[in-house]
Amino acid sequence: MAEKRLSHAYILAGPEGPARDEAARHLAASLLCGQADPPCGRCRDCRKVFSGVHPDVTVVEREKGDKGPKQEIVVGQIRRITADAVLAPNEAARKVYIIAQADRMNQQAQNALLKVLEDPPGHACFILCAVSVDALLPTVRSRCVRAAEDLGRQEGAPVLSEFARSYLEAASSGDASEVLMFCMNRMKFTREETEGFAGEVKDAVCAMLCGRLEDPGLGRERLFHLDGLMEEVLDCLRHNVQPKQIFGLLAVETLR
What's the rounded Cα separation, in Å, for the pair 199 and 227? Predict the structure, then answer.
């Protein structure tokens, strides 16, 4: 994301659910990632954002009461994040606040948010997720950039070869015999073919973590495992380990 495209506030409109949550994380990672084509999915900031543990990303949701979530996001919650926003980031260059149900803010809460949107700290960014944008005050909407629901989901998605696609399908199946068969059939790969295969899988995994490529069912924990495994494969190739040993390693470690 080029610097000139950065804003201090975004509205992410769409139905509640995993797709919108994923888009919000993708946008947060884009804002914190320091690489040329964010989010890279590999740097410390991206990994922490996608794992939900980044100290500079705060998610605001309706507070829970005795009978479940309250009806509204109240002014006290917004005042807490606006007070926090003036403090310097912990690790990244920016702090990001995701208001998961911004259209559930009551008028007092929206007015409190409006004050910081009018004069935001230079390092603070706000992502307002809403089903109904009309539920936000016009003054709040006017100070935000509208973000697409499928932000970056297809842009820059790598094109997979048959080999990389087959490997990821075998890994997502969870069937050890299928992974073993794939690896045995590639024991005669050249070093160049093996390096190209590992690089392609690593790029695909990063694209899945960033939301640019559909996950075939691996899940984030498995994707992070495969990312590290492909890095290990590439390192082994740099130290002249033969392709036969590489695919032996993959046969053992892919589903571990």
Answer: 10
Instruction: Return the CATH number of the domain spanning residue range 3-147.
Output: 3.40.50.300
Across the range 10-28, mean pLDDT stands at 85
Q: Report the candidate in 137, 141, 185, 133 with the shortest Cα–Cα distance to residue 162.
A: 185
Name the one residue in this structure whose structure tokens are 């380990």: 241
CA atoms within 13 A on the CB side of 67: 2
Q: Cα separation of 150 and 155, whole Å? A: 10
Which residue shows structure tokens 């509208």?
146
Are the C-beta atoms of 238 and 179 separated by less than 8 Å? Answer: no
Token pair of 11, please?
A: 């509205």
Domain boundaries, the chain: 3-147, 162-253
Question: Residue 214 has what DSSP assignment?
Answer: -
- Strand, coil or helix: 208: helix
Q: Which residue would you say has higher pLDDT here, 194 or 5?
A: 194
